[in-house]
Amino acid sequence: MYCHMLLNLWRKALIHDNITENSRHRMEPMKTFFLRTLKGRMILYYCTIFIIFIALLGGVTYQIFMNVMTNQILHYTEKIIEEKRGSIDTYFHQVVNLVQISAGSQVLRDAIKQQDNQDSISKLFYQRQVSDYFTNILRFNSNISDFLIINEKGYIYAQSGATVNSAYNFFDQPWFQKITSDYFYVYFLGVHAKDYYILDNNNEGNVVSAIAPIYDINSVSSDRKVYLLCNLNVKGIESISNETQLEKTGYITILDQNNNPIYKKTGAQFSLDSELERTNYFNQESGYFTVGNGLKKYLIVYKTLKTTNWKVVAYIPYSEMYAHTDAIRYMVPISILVVIAIVVLASIIIAAQINKPLMRLTSKMYLIEGGHTDIQLFDDSTEEIEKLTRRIDSMIDKIKTLTEENFSYILQNKESELKILLSQINPHFLNNTLQSIKAMAVIGKTSEISRMVTLIGNMLRYAINSFQDVVTIQDEIEHITNYLKIQNYRYPEKFKFDIVISDELRRSTTPKLILQPVVENAILHAFQQLQEGRIELTFQAFKQGIEITIFDNGRGMTSEELEKVSKLSKFDPDEAYNGGVGLRNVHQRIRNKYGYPYGITLSSEINVGTTVTILIPRLGDA
């Protein structure tokens, strides 16, 4: 018996996916495999560890690669911007030199002096000289749109191109910046429209202007402030800026002193259109930052021009930067999948090697469970398995010895068990009953003697029948009824009894002789001071089994007495016979046979009575 118990425990501990548990495993096969088997756990743990490791390694590698690539692109872009700044500064420096030379030209000074001359012929002559001067300059400078001379009141005095609206006041325009310095200096004005010509076809396109006061180089100051305005074609500046390609759709632009773009690249997907954004971002001499998100995320690098203090700005889309990492982005998940496959295969092989001695051990355990107890489990494939099998072999040998001793012990205890059953009939009860029969014989009550002898004979025959340990409840009721009838002969009118039970429960089974010790205890201890007592036996079926309630209306017990009698598990075979021993005997028999929660419970109250409840399982009809 103990051998089979050990084998069952071993089987449950090592083999959770065997044939007897297949129905449960089919419900959750994957969960069972990964959580209930060593092989599944090893695969799961190895895969989890390596996936996390590869994911972290791939993520860190990808991030480092992205940072290196971004820094390289940033460094490359800064070099491009620096080169562009040099080229554009050179371009604007040439414009500065040209404007400075023109503003100091004797031709322009002579013409200005004739502003107030009433001689129209002389005035026309000088204007013609100015026009020829400007024409000669424009002939060799295609990036210059035109020249304008603006008098001290803001109106046009002379120009190189078409006719200018004489009512157009340049000083009133928001793009025009009046020069307040007395020193000779060239100022650059941001992009603006040419809306001062009379003909509409000359109004097309925007220009950038360079402006300087016309001074007499022989005079330190002048009372009249006349300005030379040189308009530059934006397309010329744009062509210089975009000579170098930045990725496929990246581009370079220039922001004026108000951070407004000089030009916008055709087809550009992104730009900082908000003046507030441009003011917040471009507040340093140089730098870089990132704006946008998703497909419209851009890296922006800028530097300040030395000549004009404008900004040269490069826009590089991150989408094209990421395109360089497509290969590594695809490589990382593919590498992870390959590693997972390798790890799964390796874990399967390793798990199979580790499980092999366990499976051999399990197979041998199945044979032992089938009765082949002479098989040796010893296996020295690993140190752990060797120690385990040595101990199990030793345990099985001990269990075999214990099993043999147990069989001998059971045989030896049969006689003791019979004696215990016989002891359920109190010797004092037998003696007192025989004394009652003797008294009846003296007075000649032969019929009562016959009935009492029959009743005591039935009781003795029921008690000594050792072939029946489990009987029907009906048999147990008949036995206790015989016992109560005998007691009624001995103590006439001393107590009455009632038995409440359904016909269905009468066919259920119960351990033998569990009612007599309880009823006997009530008669001996409960009704000593009563004129007439009452005993009620009630049988009821519940979910846990059958509940037998024995109630007496005797004197009851104090809490101390109840506590002492209720210690039913502390059975002392050397203790003198009393009511508590009888109850403990019944409780131990039921508990040993059926286990928890079956057995006896007690409740009592002084001058109300005592209730003994016996709970047994309902095992069907006999």
Automatic annotation (TrEMBL):
Its main location: membrane. Gene3D superfamilies: 6.10.340.10, Histidine kinase-like ATPase, C-terminal domain, PAS domain. It comes from Paenibacillus phytorum. Residues 352-404 form the HAMP domain. It is found in: Cell membrane. It is a multi-pass membrane protein. This is HAMP domain-containing protein. It comes from the Bacteria. Residues 378-405 form a coiled coil. The keyword Nucleotidyltransferase does not apply. The chain crosses the membrane at residues 43-65, 330-354. Keywords: Cell membrane, Coiled coil, Kinase, Membrane, Phosphoprotein, Transferase, Transmembrane, Transmembrane helix. Pfam families: dCache_1, HATPase_c, His_kinase.
